[in-house]
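Help! Submission page says 'invalid entity' but I think these are all valid:
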Amino acid sequence: GENVEQHPSTLSVQEGDSAVIKCTYSDSASNYFPWYKQELGKGPQLIIDIRSNVGEKKDQRIAVTLNKTAKHFSLHITETQPEDSAVYFCAASGDDKIIFGKGTRLHILP
Amino acid sequence: NAGVTQTPKFQVLKTGQSMTLQCAQDMNHEYMSWYRQDPGMGLRLIHYSVGAGITDQGEVPNGYNVSRSTTEDFPLRLLSAAPSQTSVYFCASSYSGTSGGPEETQYFGPGTRLLVL
């Protein structure tokens, strides 16, 4: 079955700097790769997603890149702000399931 | 729309007790799933359903049962609670993608925090 590895588990960046979170997946049949943000005490919420026929997608300060050959995808957050502090999860969808990575806790330092 | 609702918000059980975690959605989503979230382990898939009458196992199904008699509801049953089932449980739903799988935005409920003593 699908396995998703996510790194790093914790990331601290200075406010205004960029943050990058990386994920790898195992199932070459996976075709949908979403990213979720979870704030304290809440359920995860989708922030951006990418499908296997696209290499890059951008939405304001957030971008995601996908390398299907290497089976890895990354989340890039530019000009980080205090409200970006949260836990971020990558996921891969294939075979009727969405499998999540273990999450990255992002701290934005003042 | 209320979105995805979960009840109860918090529950304490004794080892061996049974209970049902309720999940309902009012968005007419075909796909529903249950995850458990433990520190350092991320979100792990317990069971999922691609439509009414159809359920299947995820990554960690042991000790849990599900049913999907209607499109709206997807209850999760703990048959005999164990301390290892102490966790936060999230229900999620989405439209099905073109292949019938969950390749669309997952909407998560607020979670149920379960403590098994």
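Support: the input was valid. A stray whitespace character was the problem, and the output above is from the cleaned input. The CA atoms of residues 85 and 116 of chain B lie 7 Å apart.
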